[in-house]
Write a structure and sequence with these properties.
The chain is α/β, with parallel strands linked by helices and 275 residues long. The chain contains 10 helices and 13 strands.
Length: 275
């Protein structure tokens, strides 16, 4: 008989992950998972599934979740802990003899989440802007997975896309793909032409003085995790429209994201080593 998977905390992604795991024939216990039956944590856990990302300080991410230290006694040598960004508590899990199975950065989950983020960002833009994407002047900052997918999807819908990147090779690739290019941090073309600016870089890349050149009807969307690349306080001081939208897969398409998460867990539980 397969070991029970204990799902703890999180958002609606965990609900859909639980459903998919059950559909695949796995025994699932849920605790503090939205729209799932509340079950007590077992005294001994062989497989623990945490949210993506897993922690909020010393607590498991999600509503009414226990502190991490409260769940440590239930782990034992040979236990597996799945989740995203496990590093802050990896040593504590290891001291209990548990194996961390890090899913952040794993494939195909990372690329699939990037696609969901790009789609969700476009939906946000259409919801908050009074104009169509067709013909809109957009700046995509960063040319990683999310940036590449954003540029492609926006361009396919008729937007005029410029990609901002630090490396010469990324800017050359952007131009080869038919986009304009800009050097991140310098913005030689200026920022006044854009009606939509989307950032994917998780560190500060826009300054208050640069934001002063942004047109007042531009929407700035922060897709990166904290601290992000767009200073919110500067946007508010300038009266600019700013949206913080990290973790879009969980809010925009929780069912799809949850199923993807469950399948990554199943792949990892079929004998792959944790990292």
């Amino acid at each position: 008989m397969e070991d029970e998977l204990v799902l703890l905390g999180g958002d609606l992604r965990m609900h859909w992950a639980a459903r998919e795991l059950r559909r695949q024939g796995r025994a699932v216990i849920t605790c503090c998972v939205p729209h799932e039956p509340e079950q007590p944590l077992p005294h001994r856990i062989s497989t623990l599934v945490l949210p993506f990302p897993a922690f909020q300080g010393e607590r498991i991410r999600g509503a009414s979740t226990p502190g991490v230290k409260e769940i440590l006694p239930a782990l034992q040598p040979g236990s597996r802990v799945f989740g995203g960004l496990l590093e802050p508590w990896a040593a504590a899990f290891g001291e209990r003899g548990a194996q961390c199975c890090e899913l952040y950065g794993s494939e195909p989950l990372t690329t699939a989440n990037a696609a969901l983020t790009a789609e969700g960002a476009m939906a946000l833009a259409m919801q908050h802007l009074p104009i169509t994407l067709e013909g809109m002047h957009c700046l995509v900052i960063g040319f990683g997975r999310i940036g590449k997918l954003l540029a492609r999807k926006l361009s396919a819908l008729g937007a005029e896309v410029r990609v901002s990147a630090r490396s010469v090779s990324d800017r050359a690739m952007a131009e080869a793909l038919g986009y304009g290019s800009e050097e991140t941090g310098h913005y030689h073309h200026g920022l006044s032409a854009y009606e939509l600016i989307l950032n994917t870089v998780p560190h500060r890349i826009l300054t208050a003085s640069q934001l002063a050149g942004v047109r007042e009807d531009c929407l700035l969307v922060e897709l990166a995790s904290q601290p992000g690349g767009i200073p919110r306080d500067s946007c508010e001081a300038l009266g600019l429209s700013y949206l913080a939208a990290p973790g879009l897969p969980g809010s925009y398409a929780p069912k799809t994201a949850g199923i993807l998460y469950a399948r990554s867990i199943l792949a990892g539980s079929e004998g792959k080593d944790g990292h």
